[in-house]
Amino acid sequence: MAKFNRILLKLSGESLAGEQGFGIDTQRLNEYAQQIKEIHEMGVQIGIVIGGGNIFRGLQGAGKGFDRVKGDQMGMCATVINSLALSSALGAIGVKSRVLTAIRMEPIGDFYNKWKALRIMERNEIVIMGAGTGNPYFSTDTGSTLRGIEIEADVMLKGTRVDGVYTADPEKDPTATKFDDISYDEVLQRGLKVMDTTAIAMAKDNDLPIYVFNMDKVGNLKKVLEGENLGTFVHA
Ligand code: UDP
C-alpha cells in the first residue's frame, strides 16, 4: 500500500540537465521516467509539474537584458519542452501520460483545467502540467503548489538534487544539518531556500504538505511512497 493515494510530483528542470549542466540529459530523463513507472505500478495517482531552469529562467534572462515578461514566457515554454520530453520517455517504457498546458498551444497539449487533469488520473494515466501557472513573475514551485492544491493531492513531492531541507545550502556550507520535519512558518522565518515565498505561503494557506527529497538518487521516489523517511516534511 502506497503512503499517498494522489501526489503532485515537482521535478526540477535544472536536475534534468544532469552532468552536462544544460538542456536535457537523456540518462537523467530515463531515470526519472523509470522511477515514476515504479510508483505508478503501486497504484498512485500522479500529477507532475516540471521546471524549465535547464533551458531558460526569466529572472536570469532579465539580468542579461531580456524583457522580464518575455523571458518568463520563454521559461514557461521551456517547461513545456521538458513536459514533452518526460511524456515521451514515459511512453517509451509503456506508461501512458498526457500533457496539459496553462497556455493554449494545442495540439502540443490540451488546455489545462482541473477536471481534465482528474479525468486523466482516473483513467490511470499520468498528467503532466506544463507552462507553470501561465503567468509571468511566478515560478514552477508556485505552479506546482497551485496544481497540487487544485487536483487535491495528498502531498507535493518536491524532487531535488539535495536530500531535504538544511539549515544552510549543503552544497556551500559543509556544517549544514538536515531537518526531518519543519513548519511552513519556520521555513519563512529562517528564509530557507526550499521554494520561493509565494509557493510556501500558498501551500501554508491551503494546507498542502510538502516533502522535499533527493530525486536524483535512483529508487528514492519509490522509497518515499513506501513510507521511508529520507527527506524533509514541510507542514503546518
Ligand atoms: N515561469 C513563469 N511562470 C510560471 C512558471 C514558470 O514565468 O508560472 C518561468 C520563469 O521564468 C521561470 C521559468 O519559467 O524561471 C522556469 O521555471 P523554474 O525556474 O521554476 O524552473 P526550475 O527551477 O524548476 O528548473
Automatic annotation (TrEMBL):
InterPro entries: AceGlu_kinase-like_sf (IPR036393), Asp/Glu/Uridylate_kinase (IPR001048), Uridylate_kinase (IPR011817), Uridylate_kinase_bac (IPR015963)
Enzyme Commission number(s) from the entry: 2.7.4.22
Binding residue positions for ATP: 10-13, 53, 57, 160, 166, 169
Keyword ATP-binding appears in the UniProt entry: yes
Residues binding UMP: 52, 72, 133-140
This protein's record includes keyword Transferase: yes
Pfam families the UniProt entry points to: AA_kinase
Modulation of this protein's activity: Allosterically activated by GTP. Inhibited by UTP.
GO cellular component, one term: cytoplasm
Domain of life: Bacteria
Domain Aspartate/glutamate/uridylate kinase: 5-214
Region annotation (Involved in allosteric activation by GTP) ranges: 18-23
Pathway(s): Pyrimidine metabolism; CTP biosynthesis via de novo pathway; UDP from UMP (UMPK route): step 1/1
Primary location class: cytoplasm
A single GO BP: UDP biosynthetic process
Reaction catalyzed: UMP + ATP = UDP + ADP
Keyword annotations from UniProtKB, A to Z: Allosteric enzyme, ATP-binding, Cytoplasm, Kinase, Nucleotide-binding, Pyrimidine biosynthesis, Transferase
One example GO MF annotation: ATP binding
Localisation per UniProt entry: Cytoplasm
Family according to the record: Belongs to the UMP kinase family.
Role of this protein: Catalyzes the reversible phosphorylation of UMP to UDP.
Subunit structure: Homohexamer.
Protein name, as recorded: Uridylate kinase
Organism expressing this protein natively: Alloprevotella rava F0323
Gene name of this polypeptide: pyrH
